[in-house]
Specification:
Blueprint: H1 7-10, E1 14-18, E2 54-58, H2 67-75, E3 82-88, H3 96-103, E4 109-113, H4 121-124, H5 127-138, E5 142-145, H6 152-162, E6 167-169, H7 184-196, E7 202-206, H8 216-234, E8 239-241, H9 257-268, H10 273-285
Parallel strand pairs: 1-2, 2-3, 3-4, 4-5, 5-6, 6-7, 7-8
Helix pairs in contact: 6-7, 7-8, 8-9
Amino acid sequence: MTGRPEHTARTELIDAHVHVWDPRRVRYDWLAGTVLDRPRLPGDIDDADGAVDRWVFVEADAAPADALAEARWVAGLDWPGLAAMVVAADLESPDVAEHMARTAELPLVRGIRHLLQGLTPERFAAPALTAGLGEVARAGLVFDACVRRTQLDALDRLLTDAFDGTVVLDHLGKPSVDAGLDSDAGRAWLASLRRLARHERLVVKLSGLPAETSDADTLRRNGPGLLRAALDTFGAERCMLAGDWPVSTGTDGRTTTRAWFDLVRDVVGEADWPRVAAGTARTVYGIGD
């Protein structure tokens, strides 16, 4: 810990990426056999020792048939701090416009996520995905892009060809934390990130690095350099703080939410902290008072 003031004494804090789920109500095939396979509810969230004021829920890869059920379940939770929702939609489905219209009936829906990290290059370039992104833009919703570092250039091409809305790059594009910035993988990631930064309506979440590393010591050693590179590339006005609980932080993550936020804050600096801690998320996700 540093000697700086507490988060709550200085600025609002919005955690722009958190998951909740209940496998008893919604099906999550990927959870089976993992330590995460149990209900994770709003009251369980690691709130950085009470520092977090509000949260943005991000869909948790429910079974496709349960995507709408997940959104409705979250919207109905007793969760006073819920500020916005990014819900799932299958952008390759011919029924995507109808699905988004139904989710838009939920008052806090601000964005759509279709997990891209498992797509082949062919599917990235397919007309169906391009058409689906067009529907997101027409609906006036934000698109959360979750990709691996090797897919960043494919995302760049997709956005160039298909999308003129606001895009949020989740988890810094998942760089290799173990390799670090001063490696072939790190330099390739940064070059791709700089190409993506040409899309003026693309912002990045400072999140997810704990899940991309083998241990907490490596995170502390290599995380700041990766965060600094993203901050220098996009500027504070295009960066937002996020914890990715419970995947990256919490009892089953590599670190606590508070420790992750402190690491990010040390890199961002006090002058830009209010914007990264809450301002960018407010603007991008339309979060009011």
